[in-house]
Amino acid sequence: MIYQSKVEPTCTDDGYTIYVCKDCGQQHKDDYVPPLLADFVYTGTANQYTITGLINSNKTEYIIPNGVINIADNVFAGCYNLNNITLPSTLKAIGQSAFNTCTSLKSINIPEGVQAIRSNTFANCEFLEKITFNESLMQIDEKAFDQCKKLREVVLPKTVTKIGPDAFRNCYSISKLFIPKTVTSMGKYNGVNLTHFTKSEDGFTF
């Protein structure tokens, strides 16, 4: 009889299955699974990793594991095939133009812990329809969502205090934009029709 036990992969080490013969006690490892960061170029150690590049930029889906705290500038820029990405709960920063021109991306969830959407982070994601923000986001920088022409609804969390110029420029499909009253700085030419709005005790809905 053969017993088996699985060792799950980590960010940097393979996973595998250990097979043990009940009768003779011999064991061997097989069914190796690559490390969770196998798709990425990265720096850092001990669950403090920064993704700086991609091994294969043609994939349609990426899962970034817990332990990654930073996505550097331009990492996914021009990944035209990317339609699904999972960001980890440990993520704290997303660099400028990190997802610029990911034209197949339709939705994304920004995890709690990310405090800023940097310049051009999602610019030219022409088919991005939905983005979910979590509490702790404080600012959206210049042209962060420029040319996201399919984006339909934006509900900013009550932690946001700053929206940069042209943040939503040419986002023609936005039919609802909620800006919390915590926003104290908002750049010009955001590209959204702000002429009609409803005021509530939490903020403004355009």
Structure, explained:
With 206 residues, the protein is an all-beta fold. 0% of the residues lie in helices and 33% in strands. It has no helices and 19 strands. The chain has strands at 2-7, 15-21, 27-33, 40-43, 49-54, 61-63, 68-71, 84-86, 93-94, 107-109, 116-117, 130-132, 139-140, 153-155, 162-163, 176-180, 185-186, 198-199, 203-205. It has a 4-stranded mixed β-sheet with strand order 4-5-7-9, with no helix packed on it. It has a 4-stranded parallel β-sheet with strand order 11-13-15-17, with no helix packed on it. Strands 14-16-19-18 form a 4-stranded mixed β-sheet, with no helix packed on it. A hairpin with a 7-residue loop joins strand 1 (2-7) and strand 2. The radius of gyration is 21 Å and the shape is elongated. The mean pLDDT is 90.
Radius of gyration: 21 Å
Helix content: under 10%
Largest sheet: 4 strands, mixed
Q: How many strand units?
A: 19
User: Which term fits the overall shape?
Assistant: elongated
Measure the end-to-end span.
67 Å
Proportion of residues in extended strands: 25-35%
Mean pLDDT: 90
Which structural class do you get from the secondary structure elements?
A: mainly beta
SSE ordering: EEEEEEEEEEEEEEEEEEE
SSE diagram, text form:
Layout (H helix, E strand, L loop, with lengths): L1 E6 L7 E7 L5 E7 L6 E4 L5 E6 L6 E3 L4 E4 L12 E3 L6 E2 L12 E3 L6 E2 L12 E3 L6 E2 L12 E3 L6 E2 L12 E5 L4 E2 L11 E2 L3 E3 L1
Parallel strand pairs: 5-7, 6-8, 7-9, 10-12, 11-13, 13-15, 14-16, 15-17
Antiparallel strand pairs: 1-2, 2-3, 4-5, 16-19, 18-19
